Amino acid sequence: MPHNGEATVIGGGLAGCEAAWQLLCRGCRVTLWEMKPERYSPAHSSPGLAELVCSNSLRSGDPHSGAGLLKEEMRRLGSLFMSAADHSSVPAGKSLAVDRRLFSALIEDRLLAWGERFRLVRREVADLPAAPTIVATGPLTSDALAGAIQRLTGRESLYFYDAISPIVTADSVDPTRSFWASRYDQSHAEGAGDYLNCPLDEEAYHAFREEILAADKFPLHGFENPRYFEGCLPMEVLAERGPRALLFGPMKPVGLIDPRTGRQPWAVAQLRQENTSGALLNMVGFQTKLTRPEQERIFRMIPGLARAEFARYGSIHRNTFLNSPGLINDRLQLISHPHLLFAGQLTGVEGYIESAAMGLYAGLSLGRALTGGQLSPPPDTTALGSLIRHITTARKNDFQPMNVNHGLLRPLSLRIKKRERGREYALRSLADLSAWMAAQGIEAAAR
Length: 447
Ligand SMILES: Cc1cc2nc3c(=O)[nH]c(=O)nc-3n(C[C@H](O)[C@H](O)[C@H](O)COP(=O)(O)OP(=O)(O)OC[C@H]3O[C@@H](n4cnc5c(N)ncnc54)[C@H](O)[C@@H]3O)c2cc1C
Description:
The mean pLDDT is 93. The protein has 11 helices and 17 strands. The protein has helices spanning 14-25, 66-76, 80-87, 100-112, 143-153, 202-214, 235-240, 292-299, 352-369, 383-393, 418-440; strands at residues 6-10, 29-33, 57-60, 89-90, 95-98, 118-121, 133-135, 158-161, 167-169, 179-180, 195-200, 267-273, 280-283, 310-312, 318-322, 333-334, 337-342. Helix 2 packs across helix 3. The chain has 2 domains: 6-162 and 318-440, FAD/NAD(P)-binding domain, CATH 3.50.50.60; 167-312, Elongation Factor Tu (Ef-tu), domain 3 (Beta Barrel), CATH 2.40.30. The protein has a 6-stranded mixed β-sheet, covered by helices on one side. Strands 10-11-12-13-9-14 form a 6-stranded antiparallel β-sheet. The relative contact order is 0.17. It is of the alpha+beta class. It is globular and about 75 Å long. Flavin-adenine dinucleotide binds next to helix 1 and helix 9.
């Protein structure tokens, strides 16, 4: 792959700017292509680089949370995104929020300060280059480039809408009000089966449906016109179709016998293991546009989920992303065309920080490849490594975007009280990140 240290980055958003920065800090020359202001996606409106399209919050600042830990790791890796965020922060309690104009200006200024090593071309890219390139065009990648990606990866490999069901932590589900079983499993062996089922009686089911119908939902953006597949309808759309519609969809009880009653329940909510450690459970078929507070309130009405902790909330939005597992490797290279790397939301992560983190790692990865080397990914005890592992090894047939959370990290080996786990995750992660950086010869790229 060595190419005289020349790299191309497409997309001057959160991931693209971070990738360009990392490449520059590691001695490469970078051409960054950004289509604004010649052309705007339906959500972008400022000509500046690294535009935050919606909220100005970068979530928790506490390194004992998943989002806070990822941010701290990025700081240690010399992230431009984090440096600009820290220099443009505004008061927001325990969250890190930024002045979005200052944030964007700081990032643009610091990239331009590299002089002739950094070239910014303000034009839309419609084809994938033959030279080493990071594609970071985000959830609203222009149609022409999305078409080019699809031609290369196959129609089934690039999605235009997500359909995200909530994920809860396994240890927050009440085992006395749920049972493991697979549908039509005749064995009825205690604890056997692939699904954790939370049964509802008739009254609880109807009360639940009433709340779903009345709940606050996220409005669609003007540019969103989802034509839902029947197989992944938002649960509230199903609920509107009639009092029993959910019973023929995600809350179908047939083929399940509750061992406590010996009978088929009226309805069930089914949870399925989301990651290899089993720390996370996916609420199967519960994709939704309910607001987050409503998801917490209403889904906790389900017996067994009264104390559920949400690691990911359900959502459905316009979102261009790859079905990454098996398509890109753990250096974020397209396996069939390794000179092309993907970064940001396109890789199947969700959120500002996660997108920037994938830009950071893509920049490190391509920077190493351009000098003839090969980067090994950070361990899955780090927030960064656990995200990379997730997007490259998750189940391919129902892959959906993921935000960073503790459940993705390798479980702690010692039994530790819940309230102390965040601290332990952070201690382990930051020690392992330092060891990984030393082993890979990565210095924090300060400038
Ligand atoms: C409407 C909306 C609201 C969101 N709100 C939030 C939120 O509040 N909080 C949160 O954490 N996440 C949010 N996200 C999710 C996501 O984290 C952000 O979209 C994030 O900016 C993604 O980073 P990125 O670098 O992958 O893409 P972007 O930041 O979108 O950057 C992509 C860049 O590529 C450019 N581009 C696209 N196509 C081409 C092309 N062919 N040639 C050249 N340039 C091109 C675009 O103009 C853009 O500047 C939101 C997403 C959307 C769509």
